[in-house]
Amino acid sequence: LVVMDDIWHIEAWSDLKNYFPNDKNGSRIIFTTRITALQPNLERAPHFLRFLTKDESWDLLRQKVFGKGSCPLELVEIGKQIARKCQGLPLAIVVVAGLLAKTDKIRGWWKQVAESVSSYIVSDPKQYIDTLELSYNHLPPHLKSCFLFMGAFPEDYEIPVQKLIRLWVAEGFIRQTRKKRLEDIAKEYLMDLIDRNLVLVAKKGSAGGIKACHLHDLLRELCLRKAEEENFLKHIYKHEQLFSFFSSKPRGNKQRRMCIRSKAMLNAPVYSQAFGDISPWPSAPHVRSFLCTPLSFVSISFIHRSFKLLRVLDLSPIKISSIPTEIVNLVHLRYLAIRANYLTLPPSISELYNLETLIAIEGVSGFEIDQKSSPCHDHLEDSYFRSSSRWGNLYSKDLLKPYGINVPETIWKMVKLRHLYIPRGSYIKELTNDIYPSVLDNLQTISQIRLSNSCKDVLARTPNLKRLGFSGGLISKLEGYFYLAFPDLSSLNHLEILKLSNWIIPHDSSIVRSPISCIFQSALKFPPNLKKLTLEATYLSWEEMSILGMLPNLEVLKLMRHACIGQRWETSHWGFRCLKFLKLDDLDIAQWKAYSIHFPSLQHLVLCKCEKLEKIPSSLGDIPTLQILELSWCSRFAMDSARQIQEEQQSVGNDLLKVLIRANSRRETEHGPYQPSG
């Protein structure tokens, strides 16, 4: 047996390969590496080391602390708690075990360690930093910057991949190659960091891609140490640090990125006063990025004076009353995220001619929305009010904010804009001929604009859109029928993600608040390469799903909150050939007739708040690709049928199908985790 440990380059094996001929005598060579990308060159399928389980973590901790001896009973539970907080990483377990082995083995001390495991792990960096630093030192320069930037996020935070990628692009970390989009290259960078085991996958999206990632505590500590050494990033946790940062001489302060944590303001008498005092202080000319975590209402008028060369400004966690007009003086901005109670985009926003990502959010902070939201879907109000007379027998539904904001026509001067995120129902004004240029080739995202007469012109000027959302009155009445209508999208060859969120309830005046099902407009044309479609409150009849089934590239379909009405869905034989993810959320469906041939590629089925559903079609269990069947707040009959499907599959040797069920009791609904059935 020959072991080649910690290979960084395939050349190490190539130079020695000829000295180990395969004589078929039972000898073996084992390679270990931190770089997944090397495995195709090693001619054998790799064995990926997983994280330790809770029991394995405890066994390793116990052995390292007590050797062949036994652990006192009074320390067992606390010891298991310490082991769990090491997150399954052997290196972390060995480090904390070394600390426990050298100190008194008493309950009080172990409890103290359990309460702050991460701080004790990093208290002696000599035990681990050299090992981890090897991984960092072998990174190419462009990946080092991407890795260090991840230290800007809080500890144990699940970092949204889309946000991370857009920040990387804005920072200039992504190098343009060939004709690839910068965002696609950034995804390759992220996958490279994951393959090198420096970044962990936290959550996967409906299409199987990575939705969120995070850093292990030890790797985050390495990240912060390196960021400080290289003047890459500065975290400010206390008010005194903030004062010191701005009162130091500009030449001595070379930190490129500044992260304000909410604790930084706790010692200030008033948050706004703490920020307001900054304005007369010396500027910070080296700072390129300003990020922060949730704070109370503060003044941000100092920013354009203190940070004149900012590229990234993320104020989305801060509550402000309105957007200050002075913000347009930050002409180097590439990424701007801002939240205000009274949100307006001034025409002068176009003076930010370098801006690539604009995120304008109205109302409470993202943190508060997360706290109030249902696990199944965004929190939606159930209030109703009469719409204008032009809609006839229609009711309008208030979903979050019904009217959004008015986007000024000067937005079309921002030629570098790539992503535009605006509140639901925002309105883009009619375009005039003097707006130049006429086409925004770089624009890939427009979220939740209100359907209006200007939409056709907007779409003609954004040929490279990849993500688009419509919200507002998407239903109209013609010759006694209700139609779901939106502009012709067939020319948008790059559009892959589409969301339709309707506010209009089709209503028969003789039956108060009794919605009537809609049909697709006959001339309706979807984009040819659509992969993900979300429908919300569209009130379609189930028969209309056959039209969606024929979309040739559709992989993800989410039917949310009255997307379809009616109690019976008989799935068509002709569609959903490529569908991998299907979600039915808050629908009144009672009977569902479907067979495995209807969804030949389905991998993940989610049913949420389908309280009338009598049964899940048993033949769906025969879909060879199906991996997960997930139920939340569904009827007892639906849950029983899910368990029966799992039992039937296990009886024929299929142990790969996971059935995840959240029960209906209030206690379990609010606090209980998903549990595999059985």
From TrEMBL:
SUPFAM superfamilies assigned to the protein according to its UniProt record, in alphabetical order: L domain-like (SSF52058), P-loop containing nucleoside triphosphate hydrolases (SSF52540)
Molecular function via GO: ADP binding; ATP binding
Domain of life from the UniProt record: Eukaryota
Ranges of residues in domain Disease resistance protein winged helix: 153-222
UniProt xrefs under InterPro entries: Apaf_helical (IPR042197), LRR_dom_sf (IPR032675), LRR_R13L4/SHOC2-like (IPR055414), NB-ARC (IPR002182), P-loop_NTPase (IPR027417), WH-like_DNA-bd_sf (IPR036388), WHD_DRP (IPR058922)
NB-ARC domain mapped to chain residues: 1-68
GO terms (BP aspect): defense response
Limits of the Disease resistance R13L4/SHOC-2-like LRR domain: 406-636
A Pfam family of this chain: NB-ARC
Keywords, ordered alphabetically: ATP-binding, Leucine-rich repeat, Nucleotide-binding, Plant defense, Repeat
Family (UniProt): Belongs to the disease resistance NB-LRR family.
Protein name: Uncharacterized protein
Taxonomic placement: Eukaryota, Viridiplantae, Streptophyta, Embryophyta, Tracheophyta
